[in-house]
Amino acid sequence: MISIILTGHGQFAFGLYSAAELIVGPQENFKTVDFTQEMSTDELSEQLQHAINQLPKESEILFLTDLLGGSPFRSSVELAMQRKGCEVIVGTNLQMLTQVLMEKDEYKTITELATVALGWGKQGILSFKHKKNADTQRQEGGEGI
Predict the structure, then answer these.
(1) How many CA atoms lie within 13 A of 15 on its CB side?
(2) DSSP state of 145
(3) What pLDDT is recorded for position 131?
(4) How confident is the model at residue 135 (pLDDT cuts 50, 70, 90)?
(5) Burial of 22 from C-beta contacts in 10 A (0-12 / 13-18 / 19+)
(6) Does the chain have fewer CB atoms within 10 Å around its N or its C terminus?
């Protein structure tokens, strides 16, 4: 079983989950932890540990975080290193989160899920203008030698 903890600065976790919930519905074995301005990093770590404790003991945990090097990322990494069956992803976006929530039960290991989740996140980042230009070039045969 794979459980998910979504964490980030401000209302990132709650806001992103709120949007995902509109698309995929409420989720089990899922926790959000927001790192608010009033919190210390110790309080953040305590809240993340509390979230872990609320999840099934046998589950693997995928931490989804917002910003590389940020406190939510660092605290997640510290906790993940203390426990088997954890992965931490940084740069989480709505595309990634909704795909993870819809397809997490299709993967046997947390490592497999984390690997494909990175691809889903990247697929969700593009520029309409650049995509349109690339499609037009393909149609006109602009990709020749």
Answers:
(1) 12
(2) -
(3) 67
(4) confident
(5) exposed
(6) C
Indicate the DSSP class of residue 83.
S
Two tokens at 54?
């609320």
Contact partners, residue 108, CB within 8 Å, separation at least 6: none
> Which pTM does this prediction carry?
0.88
Share of the chain above pLDDT 70, in %: 90
**Average pLDDT taken over every residue of the chain:** 93
**Spatial CA neighbour of 53 closest among 74, 73, 29, 70:** 29
Q: Select from 3.40.50.2300, 3.20.20.80, 3.40.50.510, 3.40.630.30 the CATH code of 2-139.
A: 3.40.50.510
